[in-house]
Here is the input.
Amino acid sequence: MCNRRDIDIDNFHQSTASFREYEEKCLRIDVHQTNDVSLIFNTCNDESLLTNLQELVLDTLNVGDIKAFVPSKKDELTTSQRRFLMKLKLVLLSNDPDAFDPNCERFVDDLVNFLCEQVYLDDGLEMSVRPCQLRLTIGNQQFAATADKEGRRGQELIWLLQEDKHRGSTSYKHGDLQLACAMIAAIQRNYFRFETIKPKERIVMHRFPKHGFSLANPTERKEILKYMSVLQREALSII
Here is the structure.
């Protein structure tokens, strides 16, 4: 553990994407894995799926079905279902190191953009999604603290998205530390009085669920869509 007197900010990397164990200990950031959703969302919120997301559950399709999916006018699927399956298929195939485009990040970006549109996180009225270009202030220095996307309600930052692009990713702690730093930078952006970080106590953030969810698994796919619905409703409930 770093004592405050031992912290040398000049030894920090210039971008939070490059932060590792030294910065993590100095900033006293703890990312705790949990299966307790009440630590993430208000459990009094409606957990039903948004109408737009109900058709994406596709509870009879598993990973093999999705990889083999070929759209057809005779498949009795909607346009949204076909678009979702094709985008997810490209991500799954790209996870194979022998694929024509292995670990192609643009496939992940495309799938995430589609889901954000389906859940109305970028509705053109109250909420918007945009690229994230945050700066984290530590002491008298600033560090790049970008995430893949940021969500706003009006001018207020309310959520961030960090894509750990592929299953074989070697990013430090799967991007958890980078996202935690971006979240702190978002607080600084929203509340200018938090001009600097001088941690006297640990900063605890929760990662839910412990082992993640897979869009390729029909049961877990429904859980992902459920919590995306909860996120949208909670975002709209913020006063």
Q: What stands out?
A: The mean pLDDT is 88.
